[in-house]
Design goal:
Elements (H helix, E strand, L loop, with lengths): L1 H7 L6 E5 L8 H8 L4 E5 L9 H13 L9 H16 L13 H17 L1
Parallel strand pairs: 1-2
Length: 122
């Protein structure tokens, strides 16, 4: 999971991979995976404190309400496809947020990268 974020964001430096303290995130294998992404630091919310992880909790609420089938999925392949479609096809590119001047995450990131590119070129 960290590698996907790292690669799709063009190997950024000085970023956090934030999560809750689920067993998969606290495993040695996951910590090593984050460490292999140079410049990425693992961040975890405090145990039992959902407020530390509010953006992630909000994302999953949106997924469940807006996209997830009420009766679940037939198999892991169908679930995986639905999650990918939601994140990359809808949430990132289409779904208008009620904050951030109603800009989608992809548009916000595009503007951020363009602004920083101009700073580097000047």
């Amino acid at each position: 999971m960290p590698q996907l974020a790292y690669q799709t964001r063009l190997k950024p430096n000085g970023v956090l991979f934030h999560s809750d303290q689920g067993t998969h995130y606290t495993s040695k294998q996951f910590a090593e995976s984050v460490a292999s992404c140079h410049g990425m630091v693992q961040s975890m919310s405090r145990k039992g404190n959902c407020w530390d992880n509010a953006p992630t909790e909000r994302f999953f609420r949106s997924f469940k309400v807006e996209w997830m089938l009420k009766d679940g999925y037939e198999d892991i392949a169908e679930a995986s496809s639905a999650i990918t479609d939601y994140i990359w096809g809808y949430y990132q590119a289409v779904r208008p947020p009620s904050f951030n001047n109603s800009l989608t995450p992809l548009e916000t990131e595009r503007r951020y990268l363009n602004q920083n590119l101009l700073l580097v070129l000047n």
